[in-house]
Design brief:
Blueprint lengths: L10 E4 L6 E8 L2 E5 L6 H10 L4 E6 L11 E3 L31 E5 L6 E5 L5 E8 L2 E5 L6 H10 L4 E6 L11 E3 L31 E5 L6 E3 L4 E8 L2 E5 L6 H10 L4 E6 L11 E3 L31 E5 L6 E6 L5 E8 L2 E5 L6 H10 L4 E6 L12 E3 L30 E6 L5 E6 L5 E8 L2 E5 L6 H10 L2 E8 L11 E3 L32 E7 L4 E5 L4 E7 L2 E5 L6 H10 L21 E3 L9
Parallel strand pairs: 3-5, 9-11, 15-17, 21-23, 27-29, 33-34
Antiparallel strand pairs: 1-2, 2-3, 2-6, 4-6, 7-8, 8-9, 8-12, 10-12, 13-14, 14-15, 14-18, 16-18, 19-20, 20-21, 20-24, 22-24, 25-26, 26-27, 26-30, 28-30, 31-32, 32-33
Length: 617
């Protein structure tokens, strides 16, 4: 006689000293018990490993390899077929029906990486609630014993928040149900995931739900997104370290528009329901999404909770986006100087890492060139001391030809399509020139305006945290002026767009360039908004240096601005303009002027366009 059980029965691994191995135990009739090794094989072991989120089993172990268990022996003569998703769906002799002793307890060793997601439940907003962890396919709670702010810090970071505000005990957000998965959690505060902290073991202890713990996190969490195709496809959401889908209930073009804008497309062309782009797997993270149409990211829209067990993958939502996606930005993080660090890519509204698999010198060349350098080297980030990232790994198996202008143009596995852990994050050390430009925008005269920085192929602004006259002096001297007469905050010259590149700039006033001053790191600006963009007013301008390239008295006109040589566009270019260039270089006048890159195409910035020296309307 064979038995099967319902979907709520959990399994766990015990006494393996590492999370991916141990004695197999099953929860039945409110008690944990073991499984005998009679007929125990790799098919059975693989079902256990997959139920726990691993890729497969590498070993099916017999004779209490991880020690003898205690209590009942729940399952004997287990016989799984390869398509079973949970151990209790397999055939076996019946709950508690056996003729064995604990010296025959079965064990497994699993292969692959697994993240057990956490979520907050029962709070009045998304950033607070009872802490729940999913293990063995079931959500359960965490006991408050020894819980402190360091443990809360790990939970908040795993969920994408900046830090915890407070911890809550004594089931402040209501009592949970089911298992209490973790007890006596002891985090250092630097762990990426709650499961990486020390604790007594899965469902080990006698804590009650009256001691369920909660947290309040600070800020708004970003929600990384990806599409199953390049510009259209199923929408996947990254939450708590795990990719999942969106349920299509109430899904419409307004929701699709928020997705497309977050992914840097111009707009949405269509919204799709009923898994039009194929069914996903794992969690259905969001449902009842309600966007108004003005949002720039999905996190700004309303939705119902995290993880909907009521919506199947037959109802996964999709989108089609219109217009080409904007080039992705890069930054280097964790290095001792701006030319080195862990490589991070800005995609889907979030900075995340690149895996080192198959990365080579041609890809390094493209990366460093996009960042404004001439060359560089690469190694694993941890080997170079740059640390590990968080969130999804955006790019894997990157293979460049070397001629690409952007790393995103190189072949790779797809956005977020990676099996790498953050121990494989890529580190880069770039060499050569460091052409990071500065400009002033939005002022009524050329010597004043919003400060913008050109980095990683994109202009971006500077946050006004700690902005002062010393910082302004450095900007003005960088641009060829004698000094600053005033500094401005709170977007005095209008809001910028795109990235905010720098925050908390701390110049001593003797630096040559703004990037030589201490600051928090490229793109690391916390909660700063474009309403805090800085500006300057400069005085005592020096003449803009000009040169001609290609011959001694003829050639391409180049202008030196912000520490960099750049070219002049030929729009409206005529004799009047050429005469001014020649007289500035010491010649009497111009004998000719030319368009369409007569003396070859320049490189870098095109500093001037629509030059008009005389008779301008």
């Amino acid at each position: 006689m064979c038995w099967r059980s319902g979907p709520g029965t959990a399994v766990r691994l015990v006494d393996g000293h590492e999370p991916n191995r141990g004695r197999v135990e099953v929860f039945w009739s409110s008690q944990w018990g073991t499984v005998t090794d009679d007929s125990w094989d790799m098919t059975d072991a693989t079902v256990v490993c997959k139920q726990l989120g691993y890729e497969r089993a590498s070993s099916a172990l017999h004779y209490a390899h991880f020690g003898e268990g205690l209590g009942p022996i729940w399952m004997d003569n287990v016989a799984c077929s390869g398509n079973k998703k949970r151990l209790q769906e397999c055939s076996f002799s019946g709950w508690g029906s056996h003729s064995d002793s604990h010296y025959e307890d079965a064990g497994v060793i699993c292969v692959g990486q697994v993240t057990y997601p956490v979520r907050l439940v029962g709070g009045s907003s998304r950033n607070e609630g009872r802490v729940e962890v999913e293990y063995s396919g079931l959500w359960g709670t965490v006991c408050q014993d020894e819980w402190d702010i360091k443990d809360a810090n790990v939970v908040c970071h795993q969920l994408g928040y900046s830090k915890p505000i407070s911890i809550k005990v004594n089931a402040a957000y209501g009592r949970g149900t089911g298992h209490i998965w973790m007890q006596k959690v002891d985090c250092s505060g630097d762990e990426r995931r709650l499961q990486d902290c020390k604790f007594d073991g899965w469902a080990v202890g006698d804590c009650g739900h009256n001691k369920d713990v909660g947290v309040v996190c600070s800020g708004t969490a970003s929600i990384p997104l990806r599409l199953s195709g390049s510009s259209s496809g199923r929408v996947d959401v990254y939450y708590s370290g795990v990719w999942g889908t969106i349920c299509d209930d109430s899904w419409d073009i307004l929701d699709a528009s928020a997705v497309c804008r977050q992914l840097a497309f111009a707009s949405a062309a269509a919204s799709y329901i009923n898994s039009a782009h194929g069914a996903g797997s794992g969690h259905t993270w969001m449902h009842n999404v309600g966007c108004r149409g003005s949002e720039t990211s999905l996190s700004q829209c309303s939705f119902s909770g995290w993880d909907s067990s009521l919506c199947s993958h037959k109802h996964d939502a999709g989108v089609a986006c219109r217009s080409s996606v904007a080039p992705t930005s890069l930054r280097l993080v964790g290095g001792s100087s701006h030319n080195k660090g862990r490589l991070e890519v800005f995609y889907g509204g979030v900075w995340c890492t690149v895996c080192d698999d198959r990365f080579a010198m041609l890809s390094t060349r493209v990366t460093c060139r996009q960042l404004g350098y001439t060359g560089g080297t690469y190694r694993k980030s941890t080997d170079l001391g740059f640390g590990v990232g968080s969130g999804p790994v955006w790019m894997d198996n990157v293979r460049c030809r070397g001629s690409e202008l952007q790393l995103s143009s190189c072949h790779h596995a797809g956005w977020g399509m990676s099996d790498c852990g953050h121990d494989e994050d890529l580190g880069i050390v770039c060499t050569g020139a460091d052409p990071i430009a500065v400009r002033l925008v939005g002022g009524s005269t050329p010597h004043q305006g919003r400060v913008e920085i050109y980095y990683s192929g994109h202009w971006g602004s500077v946050c006004d945290s700690n902005w002062n006259l010393n910082n302004a002096h450095v900007v003005c001297r960088h641009l060829g002026y004698a000094r600053a007469s005033a500094y401005h905050s709170r977007a005095a010259f209008g809001w910028g767009t795109g990235h905010i590149w720098m925050s908390n700039v701390r110049c001593r006033s003797n630096e040559v360039r703004l990037q030589d001053c201490p600051f928090d790191g490229w793109g690391r600006v916390g909660t700063c908004l474009h309403t805090q963009d800085v500006g300057v007013t400069c005085e005592g301008a020096a003449p803009t240096p000009v040169r001609i390239v290609g011959g001694s008295y003829y050639g391409r006109v180049e202008v030196f601005y912000s520490g960099l040589w750049g070219t002049v566009c030929d729009d409206n270019w005529d004799y009047n303009d050429a005469h001014v260039v020649c007289r500035q270089l010491g010649y009497r006048q111009a004998s000719g002027y030319y368009h369409n890159s007569r003396y070859g195409q320049g490189r870098g910035h095109i500093w001037l366009t629509n030059v008009c020296m005389q008779y301008c309307g």
